[in-house]
Design brief:
Helix content: 40-55%
Shape: elongated
Low-confidence stretches: 656-660
Number of helices: 28
Distance between the termini: 50 Å
Structural class: alpha+beta
Mean pLDDT: 89
Radius of gyration: 29 Å
């Protein structure tokens, strides 16, 4: 009340702070009640309980997500009000003796000591488009202006009511917004400022539902609005030279993108339909088309933006879930994107999106997959999609190239052919020529009677920061070696991201794993660590492993959901793809492998994807008789067995947690 009387706070701002304090104190009281002590941390385990305590109920949106959305909106309003108050203090108290230096910008705005202000208090009433013009001026006068004067910021918020349908369809206003998107500097800062002032969701009402909207998981660590603005910020970063090493492709293609504002529009709208029920990618298409129509974008522009919104997940899904060594995968994706412009836009959007979802998500392995998919697709688009080499030709060419290089390096042709005699074509499809040479030279020198052959090296693209550690294991004998290997990796705290399982007619395996340390980094050139990996693998393959299991991280214990399994037959390869979505936990890979072994399945490959608290793993398997089984009684039996094994293991973990 004293600040209102002194003119530092408006009555409306006072009410915002009062309501914010009421909400936050209520939440704090609830935390203390649940914890039975003073504990002000809004941990995952408390969020669901608080939502129930305060009467929230699940509907289209989870109760906990409704509660947390109210929390984030409260935090945003309190933050914005306090920021404005502190700026007012700075201007009215700390800088009161500064000599005022004013410089006109136009008929409506002027600069006062590097802050922008209106020339008169009735500017917005007399010319409503000036509300957006303010942010355009901030974005185009970086050398002259740092921020908005507190009195002007208050005027902007006070005149939000002027933003109605007529305002939104005013050609001058829509052109101002597009001009802002085309501005060379400060775009992210102005969009964020517009959100704090209440302008962004007033001008784009479709943005209102996602403000403060959170997803109760460990994968999406930002609210949807914060994530969306971070996507735009990441796109802007592609311009900077210091980002070329981390994002080489994005930095290269950014200057070539025609109409860069189309990329930003796609970024603003890619998640706009989250929380509306259904597929947010499809639902977002109509919303973004309405935006494009209102801003009078052309047909080509509109179609491109709508395509990007609808398909913004396709490139990451293809890179992480499909076999990029298969020429059919590249051909299908190239046909899907159609041309280089679409590929460039989609790549930039995808990389910006991944990096704005969770800082730990963009690691060397995901970067290498995106790099591989982009470059292979670009090469095929340049040659023409009708020129692609099919699977059989690719295998034959890889075989010829590897043999020629081995002979050139001094290997005996007949010895090489003999070593390859029992290796299936899948090996020559999935391994690169250089890796085949590396493996074969070691195979020729190794005697399996002395134990398995284990090679450890780095799988890399042109950048050493991209890729994963490759572990090649050639062993003979038992069919349960994959289980033993999975348990060894568990003991070593190595995360498997890709597995290629090749078994010969003589019960010998030629398996390649790509792994990352728990930090998400490659093993690197550390002889001690490599020796440890090799020894632990040998112990487990010999049946002497310790069986040590990692403890479940504390954050994962707040999340539990039932396992989902789906099967799909691949007509080309004759394999059955088994997709498993389940909570992440220690020992998961070995548990799944044990179920496959029990049901007589031969594992050919795996793609392991961890998304926060959940894993979305894809396994390629065949039955011993080679018959597909996705829509069979056997398939239904396998589904039930996998679900029972994984959910039973999860229940045991919960029981241990409760006991502790």
């Amino acid at each position: 009340e004293d600040l209102v009387a002194a003119g530092f706070l408006s009555p409306d701002e006072r009410d915002v702070l009062r309501e914010g304090r009421r909400f936050l104190w209520r939440g704090r009281w609830g935390l203390h009640r649940l914890a039975a002590r003073e504990d002000d941390r809004l941990l995952f385990e408390y969020q669901k309980q608080l939502a129930t305590l305060f009467g929230y109920q699940d509907n289209d949106q989870l109760a906990v997500e409704q509660f947390m959305q109210d929390y984030y909106r409260t935090a945003l309003s309190v933050f914005a009000t306090n920021e404005l108050l502190l700026q007012h203090f700075d201007e009215a108290i700390l800088r009161t003796r500064e000599r005022a230096r004013t410089e006109p910008l136009n008929d409506r705005f002027q600069i006062r000591n590097r802050t922008i202000e209106v020339i008169s208090d009735d500017v917005f009433v007399e010319h409503p488009p000036a509300i957006l013009e303010l942010f355009v001026l901030l974005g185009t006068n970086e050398d002259l202006v740092d921020t908005v004067r507190a009195t002007t910021a208050r005027l902007v918020s006070r005149h939000v009511y002027l933003i109605d349908d007529a305002f939104r369809r005013n050609p001058e206003v829509t052109e101002l917004f597009l001009t802002l998107l085309r501005s060379s500097t400060r775009l992210f800062s102005q969009l964020r400022r517009m959100e704090r002032y209440g302008i962004l969701d007033a001008y784009l009402p479709e943005f209102t539902p996602v403000i403060g909207q959170m997803q109760f998981d460990l994968f999406h660590i930002y609210t949807v609005d914060a994530h969306t603005l971070q996507v735009v910020r990441n796109m802007r970063r592609f311009r900077y030279r210091n980002q070329e090493q981390r994002f080489p492709i994005a930095a290269h293609i950014y200057p070539r993108l025609p109409k860069i504002e189309l990329l930003y529009i796609a970024g603003l709208y890619h998640d706009i339909a989250k929380g509306q029920g259904g597929d947010h990618s499809r639902l977002g298409v109509k919303i973004v088309r309405d935006f494009c129509e209102r801003h009078q974008l052309g047909t080509w522009d509109t179609n491109l933006v709508a395509w990007l919104v609808e398909n913004h997940l396709v490139m990451s899904t293809t890179a992480q879930r499909k076999d990029l060594s298969d020429p059919d995968t590249i051909h299908d994706f190239a046909v899907f994107v159609q041309d280089q412009v679409r590929l460039d836009f989609l790549y930039a959007l995808t990389v910006a999106d991944i990096n704005a979802t969770n800082p730990t998500l963009w690691n060397g392995w995901r970067a290498s997959l995106m790099h591989q998919l982009y470059t292979a697709t670009k090469r095929l688009l340049r040659a023409g999609t009708e020129q692609y080499v099919d699977r059989a030709e690719f295998i034959a060419e890889n075989h010829r190239a590897a043999l020629a290089r081995l002979v050139e390096r001094g290997s005996d042709r007949d010895s090489v052919q003999k070593a390859w005699r029992y290796i299936s074509d899948d090996y020559f499809l999935r391994e690169s020529t250089s890796d085949i040479v590396w493996h074969t030279e070691a195979l020729l020198q190794h005697n399996l009677d002395t134990g398995p052959l284990i090679l450890i090296g780095e799988f890399r693209t042109l950048l050493k920061e991209e890729g994963a550690t490759q572990i090649f294991i050639h062993s003979a004998g038992a069919t349960d070696h994959f289980i033993a290997t999975a348990r060894a990796f568990e003991q070593l705290s190595l995360n498997v991201v890709d597995a290629r399982i090749v078994t010969s007619d003589r019960a010998a395996s030629f398996n390649t794993f790509h792994v990352l340390e728990a930090s998400g980094q490659q093993v690197g050139d550390r002889p001690g660590r490599k020796a440890e990996i090799s020894q632990v693998l040998r112990d487990h393959l010999a049946g002497d492993g310790s069986g040590t299991r990692r403890r479940q991280p504390l954050a994962l214990r707040s999340f539990n959901f039932k396992t989902a399994v789906s099967l799909r037959d691949d007509e080309n390869s004759g394999q059955t793809a088994v997709e498993i979505i389940t909570p992440d936990r220690p020992g998961l890979l070995a548990t799944i492998a044990a179920v496959f072994l029990e049901h007589g399945l031969i594992l050919l490959g795996a793609r392991i994807t961890t998304l926060g608290e959940r894993v979305e793993d894809l396994f390629y398997v065949i039955r011993e008789d080679g018959t597909p089984f996705a829509r069979s009684a056997f398939g239904e039996t396998l589904e039930r067995a996998v679900i029972a094994a994984l959910d039973s293991a999860a229940d045991q973990t919960d029981n241990l947690k409760e006991a502790s």
